[in-house]
Design brief:
This protein is 27% helix and 17% strand. By secondary structure, the chain is an alpha+beta fold. The chain folds into 2 domains: 1-30 and 359-385; 33-354, no CATH class.
Length: 385
């Protein structure tokens, strides 16, 4: 009879531990996704380019994203964060919800087509180094120091050159916006200021990401790739480069963030901080990338402004779309006389700082409490005997 009293709590304890391990494995193995609202592109300007001889026009600039309150976690991103286009030929439209999953910068699939199968590993490593070096040398947090629109747009254009230019048969790629498979479609002497600035950025790259870890504006952050996946309308967004915080997470997320830069899935919940993008200025609209074979009017200029501390709290549902005619042929095609202009999305939102708990961490915490309670119950029964 005493054995039965002892066996019952022990069996319950073993079952609880097994359940904890099962849920923990499931939480760590799942592919976390995030639904994000694309508000606008700011600053922005039209960019003419060609890829393997095919001309196109898109809008280059800095993406403004907002994580709705309906998303419990933020995967380390701020509720309002900035992004940079990683797929210039994939369309995207402002004032819509898109879904992403966290993806490692080092995933070879991100650079498919730049080189043959045998050279993809080397190509991926080299491109990641260039990307991180670009951010290390030229990323500036606008909360700390205003950045000119030309400098902000130049970073996006330089990123496109890095992720689009094909690998040569031998040696490192020549990152030249006026030559190669991916190029700016302007004579060098007549190119916009942001294109010439972008080429200056590319000329400075030496193939070392040490500057990424030395840039004070990147301290405590890591660069991730948000991979577009189908949203509720079965539309896939262009992938984005974004910065997220790697410390200060909610319970259950510690130690997971580093997986993003080593090929893993990354943290499952919402530790975050005030992630700032490059560039400020007036204007609104949809995002960069996407083919358009017709020309457009010259882009707008944007005055540099100092970011304010005004904050707005996202509602549980995104604001209603004010675009009467969504752009076609790309993320934002240049507006023509036959196409009504996009309406401004409203006052830009700034940075919120309240951390968001991670659902897997909360779940595991509840399971752990249940396990502890079962163990104490077993100890009490043993003590009675």
């Amino acid at each position: 009879m005493p054995c039965n009293y002892v066996r019952a709590p022990l069996v319950a304890l073993i079952a609880a531990l097994a359940l904890t391990l099962a849920f923990g494995s499931r939480a760590s193995a799942q592919d976390p996704s995030l639904e994000v609202y694309y508000t606008k592109l700011e600053p922005k300007d039209q960019f003419r380019y060609s890829w393997k001889g095919k001309g196109a026009v898109c809008t280059a600039g800095v993406f403004r994203w907002e994580v709705p309150q309906t998303e419990f976690g933020t995967n380390g991103l701020d509720r309002n964060f900035t992004g940079y286009c990683a797929e210039i030929r994939v369309p995207i439209t402002a004032e819509r919800l898109y879904r992403f999953r966290m993806n490692s910068l080092y995933d070879v699939a991100n650079y498919e087509g730049l080189a043959g199968k045998e050279g993809m590993e080397l190509a991926a490593q080299r491109r990641v180094t260039y990307i991180k070096e670009l951010f290390g040398r030229y990323y500036r947090d606008p909360v700390l120091k205003p950045v000119s629109p030309d400098e902000a747009i130049a970073l996006q254009v330089a990123l496109w050159e890095v992720v689009q230019e094909s690998e040569p048969a031998e040696g490192a790629p020549k990152l030249d916006l006026f030559g190669g498979d991916f190029r700016a479609d302007y004579p060098r002497a007549d190119a916009p200021a942001y294109v010439r600035t972008a080429q200056g950025y590319l000329d400075s790259l030496v193939g070392s990401d040490a500057s990424f870890y030395e840039n004070p504006d990147l301290r405590g952050r890591e660069l991730v790739r948000l991979q577009g996946i189908p949203n509720a309308e079965k539309v896939v967004a262009q992938s984005q480069f974004a910065l997220r915080f790697i410390s200060g997470g909610a319970a259950g997320t510690a130690g997971l963030s580093s997986a993003l830069t080593t090929g893993g899935l990354g943290a499952l919940g919402g530790f975050r901080g005030p992630v700032g993008g490059i560039g400020t200025g007036a204007g609104a609209g949809s995002g960069g990338g996407g083919f358009l074979t017709t020309g457009g009017s010259p882009g707008s200029s944007f005055a540099t402004t100092t970011p304010t501390t005004t904050t707005t709290t996202p509602t549980s549902t995104p604001p209603e779309t004010t675009v009467t005619t969504p752009p076609v042929g790309g993320p934002e095609t240049p507006e023509t006389p036959n196409q009504p202009p996009n309406q401004p999305p409203g006052t830009p939102t700034q940075f919120s700082t309240n951390p968001v708990p991670a659902p897997p961490g909360v779940l595991l915490g509840v399971i752990a409490l249940g396990t502890l309670g079962t163990w104490r119950y077993g100890v009490r029964l043993l003590a009675r005997k």
